[in-house]
């Protein structure tokens, strides 16, 4: 009987701790446009700062079927901060972004805030970064290249 009584406060404390953690977490929702339907998968990478973005160290990622011309991905439980997304559509199914001999992508790709790649590479983190606070839902758009 005493063990059961001891468990009640412990379970209550665990539940309150879980609520507190989730209450301090934001959500980032990205709508991905111009997807080529039924052609492979779309790989989405979430970065939590400029340095991880430059080093291609993802904070999180998702791989979704290219089921239609527009998709939505959701990253929930994010600590407050600035985040950026990059995506590519793996049309040929090899698990990497296809490029030509000069390193120019040959498969559709895009970035959060519809940021555009420059002539010599991807946009800077500031161009694609979105701020996520501890309780809100933030939305952004990724426009895939043709």
Largest sheet: 5 strands, antiparallel
Strand content: 35-45%
Give the % helix: 10-25%
Number of strands: 8
In whole angstroms, the N-to-C terminal distance is 67 Å
Q: What sort of overall outline do the alpha carbons produce when their principal axes are compared?
A: globular
Q: What structural category do the secondary elements indicate?
A: alpha+beta
Low-confidence stretches: 1-21
CATH architect. name: Sandwich
Can you walk me through this structure?
The protein is α+β, with helices and mostly antiparallel strands. It has a single domain (26-143), classed as Immunoglobulin-like. 22% of the residues lie in helices and 36% in strands. The longest helix has 22 residues, at 2-23. The chain is globular and about 45 Å long. The protein starts with a helix and ends with a strand.
Structure described in brief:
By secondary structure, this protein is α+β, with helices and mostly antiparallel strands. Helix content is 22%, strand content 36%.
